[in-house]
UniProtKB/TrEMBL annotation:
Coiled coil: none annotated. Gene3D superfamilies: YVTN repeat-like/Quinoprotein amine dehydrogenase (2.130.10.10). Residues 1-26 form the signal peptide. This is PQQ-like beta-propeller repeat protein. Keywords: Signal. Residues 90-305, 319-396 form the Pyrrolo-quinoline quinone repeat domain.
Amino acid sequence: MVIPRIHRTASWSALAASLLTFSLQANDWSNWRGPLQNGVSLEHYTGAGKLPDSAAWTYDARSRGTPVIVDGKVILWGYRGETSDLIELLTVLDAKTGKKLWEVEIADYLSDSIYNRYSIGAPTVDPETKRIYLVSNAGVFVCYEMDGKKVFEIPLMEDFGRMTFPNARVGSPVIEGDLVITHFIFSNWGADGPAADRAYAFDKKTGELVWWALPGVSPPVDSSFSTPVLETRDGKRVMYYTTGCGHIVCVNARSGKAYWKMPICKNGVNASVVLHKGNKLIAIHGDENIDSSEKGRMVAIKLPETLTAPTTPEGTVLTGAELWRLPLGATSSSPVVVGDMLYQLTDGGELYCINIETGKELWKKKLSNANLHSSAVYADGLLYCPMMEGKLVVVKPGETDAEIVQEIKLEGQCLGAPSICDGVVYVTTTEKLYSFPIPNSGIKVDAAPVVEIPKAGKPAALQIIPAEVVIMNGSKQAFRIRSVDANGFVVSEDVKGVKWESFIPPTAKVKASMDAKFNDAGELVVAANAKESAGAFKATAADGTFGTIRGRALKNLPLTEDFEGYNLDQDQPSEGVKFSYPPLPWIGARFKFDVRELEGNKVFAKTFDRLLFQRGTVFVAPSHLSNYTMQADVRTEGSARLKSDIGFINQRYLICLRGNANKLEVSSNPERLKVEGNFKVSANTWYTLKTRVDVNPDGSGVVRGKVWEKGQPEPEAWTVEAKVAKAHTQGSPGIFGFSQMNQKRVFLDNLSITPNK
């Protein structure tokens, strides 16, 4: 594509208008790292000039991420508001004018995000369907058509146990064939209950789960929002990313099979990796190294040419692959590769140039006093570097030094990477989105690399979709069954005549099965009187290939649980007690809670498994429920000066008895909504806690909670009532426990969840 020449003496307004009239084509910036997955633009400019000091247009939007540009539209993830009015936004703008075309609101809930650290990530657009994918701060995974029509919405927190963290880093989904893939820290049910850095792959058109993978180790140390980088290697489609357990990992992008992992850091790693010449991978982190006390490390590793079947489900540990390392540190700023040169912004606000072949530092340039998330972008000989203090620095890199070409002051802070499309640089701040056209007399666009997709071989396994299900009593679920080869490529889209059977993995700690049966039509049926249960099924085709799915059979309301039916047959050596694993179908319960005896009764107890999970949230029923009342007996250990917290999740609101504060508190995200009622909490005393949420016809609502000493008459008045302007209309009922520094345990008993009266 070539843009016609524009006379150099044209006024800036005429120049901007002219530049912005051309359609966007092969150079669309459909994901935060651009068409090459490394922050490099395919565009080259004839007669390029400096950016103007003022933008062609701005849009009032608060963001810490990267806008993506497709088909003449700018797709932005941002937010507005400060406290109870804060709402996340998916906004689509006209790239020529900055005019808003449409916008959807995504409410935050139950997240740990603090200090308005929102929108640290980006949407992704599928080049085939032109659909937009985004995961919100609370883990709401949405898919929209380019015209604003919703395709699907999946609450990952409630349905799959996706966790949130105070740093609020989210990242971006990636597209691979017919899949859309996201990774974060998940604490699901059963064997996947322990928190771990997992990747989840969904059908990009339907939102059905296709596979999930745990390529690192459990437990993680922190979150990670590293975006996977994809390539074809050894006849397979693979993805590389860094994890919350401090590893670089390699995973089959079509099947989820983990090939290898390499530990590099004692904390979570957030920067995305880059590839070089098909044989090297470069990664960077800013924390303590796995093999030294130094903080920060840039490392280049040699990629294995052959990817063999792993010896464990988590993959093998890659050893002897390091080519070179440098003592550079970046919390989450990702590197940029241009030829044999690598450019990196560090936490100290310095821009480094590294020779990738030798690992030699060629030069460094001080751009600012500090940097956190921002990554540079490269286009036609220039690097565009947003700095946290609120300026865009344009740098011309050389062989031995770099020249600062421009510094443009922006309103707010910069924490995202820019994007470049059709001669326009887009950059976000915590106050605005800016559009800076690059003055030029013509644009040439390099052809994007052709993705090599190997042909499928012989069938080696069955891939069953959806791979995980929730079926309510009296309902059923159909499946699509396709055969895949040893590398995960689809051989047949429709496999008939499979034989289904209940399946218990040999490594399962809880030998359980789902109370459900397959009918003659291949549908999994849960009877109206089925018990609450969870388990797996195996499907075997006529040729002997097989695959598995797993599911939960859940009861409709009302629900009750007194825990007396659990057999305390597990040993807790550190405490010298017997316990039972928590109810198998509950999301996020394993290792955070257990069932044990207290004063002759079996109760649900917060564990001291690890400090990272001193807060524990468990979802006990599906996310579509609404208009229900929760009640249970609750108790905290401790003394007058030190107690813990116990509460309910009711329709995406937390109603929590705060022991040390002597309050019953309603919140969603405590930074956004927090309403308290006074209640004196005595340690080692049983109380009854009751909550409900009522939604009014106009969308407003009231969240109510009351607490009283167990055995005493229920008070008529509510202890706390929180009025909300726009109430959540549905959400999973859940249990929350917070044992500060794992010092004092909390307990729950006699749980009931009933429809509101």
